[in-house]
Design goal:
alpha/beta, about 35% helix, about 20% strand, Rossmann fold, eight-stranded parallel beta sheet, globular
Amino acid sequence: MTNDSAGLPRHGSIILLFDQATGRIGAIVEVGKLNAYRTAAADAVAAEALSRPDSRVLTLFGTGHKATYEAAAVARIRPIEQVIVVGRSTEKTYEMVARLKNLSLPAEAAECAEAACRRADIIVAATSARAALFEADWVTPGTHVASMGSDGAGKQELPVEVYSRASLFCDLPAQSRVVGEFQYAPAEASLTAIGDVLSGKAPGRVRSEEITVFDSSGVSLQDLFIAGAILRANVAENLGPTD
């Protein structure tokens, strides 16, 4: 039996939280689903900072567990009127379209990857690809592009040629060059940490026609934050209101 057939996420992980006073394990959190939430939330924060406010068309590469969360999160921060799904399997593509429609997201299957990219205001790649999913020339001015599947050496979702036309952002530049999408970026390419944009230390999008690229390889602080938030919520729910 596979995770797919059991209705479980393919990606499984566990967070260990240690008591800072004693060094003993304070909690063990299974985060298969939480990982999808935290990644999608981080990508939505980046999209809010980097994509055009009037972005209405989202092209989504990927039909797996995390892709659903990515689409739902982006739709919370931008007025998305159409989600175009690009998948390798026709069956899985239409299954993803059905899942998104069940979330009240207006979804359709792509006729072809090129047309889907050219229509997009935002492109999100959520796959396990090891080669570019589309051509750089298909990305039109003003598009925001996000890769969340490249989280290991050898993985790749985006065409290298787009980097010379875009402003490049990521969770952590040093990490992105080793295991993220920007392991393929030229050494002289300037990478901006999204945290610097959020704190006002660096600019995000500065022109409406600018192409922005965000590499979301993830950082451990995101895991610690969401695990802590879940534990606090669980404690509050179990304790209930106090007098």
